Amino acid sequence: MRRPPVRRAIRWVALLVATVALTAVAAGAWVYAQAQESTVDDLDFANPLAIPPLLEPDIDADGRKTFDLTLQSGETDFLPGAQTATWGANDTYLGPTLRARRGDDVRIRVANDLAEPTTLHWHGMALPGAMDGGPHQMIDPGEIWQPHWLIDQPAATLWYHPHPHGRTADHVYRGIAGMFIIDEHDTDELALPSDYGVDDIPVIVQDKQFDGDGQLSTAEGPASLVGVLGDDILVNGTHNPHLDVADQRVRLRLLNASNARVYDFGFDDDRRFALIGSDSGLLDEPVDSTRVQLAPGERAEIIVELHPGERTTLRSYPPDLGMGFPLERTNGGHDTFDVLQLRAADQLRDAPPLPGTLASVERHRPDEAATTRTFELEGFSRINGREMDMARIDQTIPRGAVEIWEITNASNTYHNFHVHLVHFQILDIDGDPPPPELAGWKDTVFLAPGQTVRIISRFDTEPDPDAPFMYHCHILDHEDAGMMGQYTIAPPTDNNAPTDR
């Protein structure tokens, strides 16, 4: 069983106690940091990158697509000479990639063959609350859950993972996760790499910590404020991976599926790449870049160009966490990891040039907003002074409303903020417009200590007071500790006051 960190017991009893606790943490972090060096892997990239299989659906006479997923336990070979106990979907670790089109009627049969209850959440999907897979849609051992919905959102790289209240960090860390790719008819002619597993590659990045027997360890560093930060990187469940590339351009769908670690992706030779998509869809146009930073739950699609016979390594450079020394170092801010080596063939298939326009992102205007709501992320477990209560609805939003949410990180550690159901746009970060890579559709946003981000979105789904949606920190230990709230969609005549269920 995963034990909650000791810090979860330290609540906001009094300001003095909190101040003393943070001072002690900082002092301990300073001592711990002196003994730490930035992590740099010395890999030989001996293992071919595993590509999660595409899950083929059953299609009935009416065109409905049914996908079958079985959540199961098993053992997986990560390190030489060790069999690691893991969880997965249709496999011992991770799960298959689901792929569907806008307009598809999808149904998913999720069978729980685990020994404990769990859920399966469709991260980034716009769908009814009862189908969301949050903590209210628990699947008991031996039971089958069958959500269904009509896909009505732009092409995007989404993902799925467990979301049981208080147990999400443990269930995700054990290995249940997978991609859900949405295609869209009007993007088929964009001439983007789209041959799955050939020039269109899922890259699911996770950090893990192994004990002396090769088992997953949840031991935390003495100055970690975010939970487990592992020093071994898995990509699609592969340790020490390489990818053989036969095309001039390759599309990498980057997913940070880690519990807590933030990555700043780039290449070891600082080559430029085209960033074409963020969490919930394609950008207006490609963004020329050498770095893209992703917090847990965030995604990015990049296209990198290769030359015959060369090798280049995707690397995570030290991310900007905004925490300052020593906490920046002890929470992953000084770490560098080699992630994946790309090995180009001696002859490469030609690829057409990238289009100058990718999508037409509808912009919400601030003057459309019916209201502005404020959210303060406090400590490790509170939003607006309250911890998660499954019986309490924190926000009620009229259907169809456009709203601005102002989110402030009022703690001394980094957080990120994920909203179920909606895709939002970032209006500003500490009053400044977002950079181009953050100007598209998002569902998760990073916040450094003291930072304020304003987002805007339209909330439009069928009202269902019995099936709330979540908003929460996607640092999974923080989420489990209570940094989560609930909202429902109501008819436009309902008020917006918090209620108790």
TrEMBL record:
Ranges where the Plastocyanin-like domain occurs: 72-185, 373-491
Signal peptide location: 1-26
Keyword entries, A-Z: Metal-binding, Oxidoreductase, Signal
CDD domains cross-referenced by the UniProt entry: CuRO_1_CueO_FtsP, CuRO_2_CueO_FtsP, CuRO_3_CueO_FtsP
Listed GO MF terms: copper ion binding; oxidoreductase activity
Protein name, as recorded: Copper oxidase
Superkingdom of origin organism: Bacteria
InterPro entries, per database record: Cu-oxidase-like_N (IPR011707), Cu-oxidase_C (IPR011706), Cu-oxidase_fam (IPR045087), Cu_oxidase_Cu_BS (IPR002355), Cupredoxin (IPR008972)
Native source organism of the sequence: Egibacter rhizosphaerae
Family, as annotated: Belongs to the multicopper oxidase family.
